[in-house]
Write a structure and sequence with these properties.
It catalyses: adenine + H2O + H(+) = hypoxanthine + NH4(+). Helix content is about 50%, strand content about 15%. By secondary structure, the protein is α/β, with parallel strands linked by helices. The structure holds adenine and zinc ion (ZN). The site of zinc ion has 6 residues, from strand 1.
């Protein structure tokens, strides 16, 4: 069977990766030691064995604790460079990377420290491995709209350093409407707009992400299959979904990969893509997501693989000339 080799070799874009979710336990321990941060785990193995999630919130609690070791510009640089090196190995030629500044500014780390470290890694990775990388600032939806506005204010000096904004963290109880005004301001500033919706939340959150926030892509969106009208709209308007299969199984959005909605999304003509979300926590980088998903869903074939890769470039915010060259 040639499919796994093909899936690994196809050039692709990764559009849904949280850089804090690429922090491997080994790097969490190394940074804790370097920075004198105390961790409530005795060993790398003890930390890894805490990665037994039952839903999104149970993951987020551990993910935010892991990020507490990031203090200095070099820490953000090391984290992002490690991810980009690993992604390049998976034949990712374009990565659009979420970062959660509020997780860091809440601990007294300056916006400048976060952005400078991440940007320097993007520049160096491009020089070393040819990978094109860009940043998307993601607001934490469990915090207030006022805090999102403060975060945007802190990011204004770095407007040239990120290409867009997103919305992540605890979905249920925090609908897109909560952030209508801050996203309107981001659109006025010329930023791209995406939002997590339809991961644990209902199809109504996907509608609101599109109509209230002006989202150009939907992160996850896998619950759209519960709403036939929404499926028609996503297909007609070619609105990309950044799907993360291993994440969805680990956070129990689906009981197993064989019951993932990806085949239905592709069958309905949606612009679905495959991504890793938080690879250090969910047991795989982007090629692991491709190979395990295709192994569990035998109806997916080589044409679907090429379609998914094509969708990832079409959905990316890269310059049009780059997109044409990659497709
Ligand atoms: N932050 C990191 N990963 C996330 C996910 N899968 N959903 C919501 N917020 C996140
Ligand atoms: Zn995500």
């Amino acid at each position: 069977d040639h499919l796994p080799a093909l899936l690994a070799a196809i050039p692709k874009a990764e559009l849904h990766i949280h850089i804090e979710g690429s922090l491997e336990p080994e790097m969490i321990f190394a940074l804790a030691q370097r920075n004198g941060v105390h961790l409530p785990y005795d060993s790398i193995e003890a930390l890894r064995s805490a990665y037994a999630f039952t839903d999104l919130q149970s993951f987020l609690d551990i993910y935010y604790a892991g990020a507490s070791v990031l203090l200095h510009e070099q820490d953000f640089y090391d984290m992002a460079l490690a991810y980009l090196q690993r992604a390049a190995r998976d034949n990712v030629v374009r990565a659009e990377i979420f970062f959660d500044p509020q997780t860091h500014t809440a601990r007294g780390v300056a916006m400048e420290t976060v952005v400078r470290g991440l940007r320097r890694a993007c520049v160096d990775a491009h020089a070393q491995w040819g990978i094109s990388a860009a940043l998307i600032l993601s607001f934490l939806r469990h915090l207030s709209e006022e805090e999102a506005f403060e975060t945007l204010e802190q990011a204004l000096p770095f407007l040239g350093e990120f290409i867009g904004v997103g919305l992540d963290s605890s979905e249920l109880g925090h609908p897109p409407e909560k952030f209508a005004r801050v996203f309107a301001r981001c659109r006025e500033l010329g930023l791209h707009v995406v939002a997590h919706a339809g991961e644990e939340g209902p199809p109504a959150y996907v509608w609101a992400a599109l109509d209230v926030l002006g989202a150009e892509r939907i992160d996850h969106g896998v619950r759209a299959v519960q709403d036939a009208l929404l499926m028609q709209r996503l297909a007609r308007e070619r609105i990309p979904l950044t799907v993360c299969p291993l994440s969805n199984v680990k956070l129990r959005v689906f009981p197993d990969l064989a019951r993932h909605s990806l085949p239905q999304l592709l069958q309905a003509g949606l612009a679905a893509t495959i991504n890793s979300d938080d690879p250090a926590y969910f047991g795989g980088y982007i090629n692991d997501n491709f190979t395990q998903t295709f192994a569990a869903l035998p109806q997916l074939d080589a044409r679907d693989a090429w379609q998914l890769a094509h969708n990832s470039f079409a959905a990316s915010f890269a310059p049009e000339a780059d997109k044409r060259a990659w497709q």
